[in-house]
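Tokens for histidine kinase. Go.
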Amino acid sequence: MGFDVRFTVTLCAWLAATLLSMQAAIWTFGSEDLLAARIVASALLVAAVVGTWRHITRTNRTVASFLESLHYGDLSARVDRRGGAGFDRLGQAMDAALRRSQDIRETAERQLRFLEGVVDDVPVAILTIDQGGIHLANKAARQLLVDHDGIRAGDFAVYGATFAQWLAAPRAADRAVLVLRFRDGLQRALVRCARLERLGQPVHIVSIEPLQGTLESVEVAAQTDLVRVLTHEILNSLTPVMSLSRSAADMLREASPDLPAARDAVKTLARRAESLRSFIDRYRAVARAPSPRVRQFAAGPFIAEIAGIFKAEWPCCHLETIMESDQDFEADPDLLGQALINLMRNAGQASAQDDAPRVRLALRYRHDRRWLEIEDNGPGIPEALRSDVFLPFYTTKADGSGIGLNLARQIVVASGWTISIEDSPLGGALIRIGI
């Protein structure tokens, strides 16, 4: 029999008992001699009314107890199954629901503990930024960021002013390579940001991944390639040198040496040796990795100095300077100056091919980020060559060395910045350094 049928039958029985006891009570009140019967009938009537009321409200109390257990999270509570009329079946159903909810919660808690363990043990430092401040979210962050004291962005300036500014205004899907100051020295690190919501409030997740080990592996591979190139070029240069040396020696050993021919061979030998020495000098310049000595310095005087150097070397070229930000730089002024001088010299050489050479040096400021831009009105750099021009010894000029852009890129990468090439509104190339 279903619960609703049993409930209805029991309710009808209670109502019948109530009606019968009511009739008995009315009958006893009509006779003065039935005092004891009147008391018994009244008691039966009260009991029937109470029983009917309890039966009607029993379901409400059972459901309320079940919902109260859910509300307070007491999933270990069990429903009272006593009372018959299907309440055992109702209690079983509610107990099963509570047990299922408890199993789901325990599974979720185990999964949450697993995810917390993964986050805590992941080898990338993770920070969370919310209205309460900046918090170290895992062991890697607590082991890496040990020199600050506080939860505000300014407290993280000990690792770098740029890093503190980055934390003060995080943007979702933003990423940057920054030079951070840790206890074991300066390191380049990839800093990325994502945005989530927790309890309806925005939370930014920031990951910090030091790149020094990866970069060292890449540098080893690059050094191997450079050594292979160097060996190939030296052998190519030594082959004719050795051949000419043997020829000159054979000529001089003859009884009547051909002195003009021997003199030409020695001259050619000298030229080849000088060419080899020049190549080795250029290789040494490329292979010497820059080591930034970071400090703060004023942007205005620095840009003015670079502009003055350019004007002295290229007096016939019209130079335009733009300053959208006067914030101090945090960089190595010597290395940054060397990079800019190389880039400005390339721009001057490119613009010289135009009848009215123009070069523009701009410091731009957008969305809390700064860029240095060098533009010219020369022939530009084709898009297919823009990744090659930064390679060592690569040049499109007959008298070029292929070193200037490569050294500029080395300085930019060592400083944790970015460098890219685009088309300039002036008609030539635009080289942008993201600081």
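The chain has a mean pLDDT of 77.
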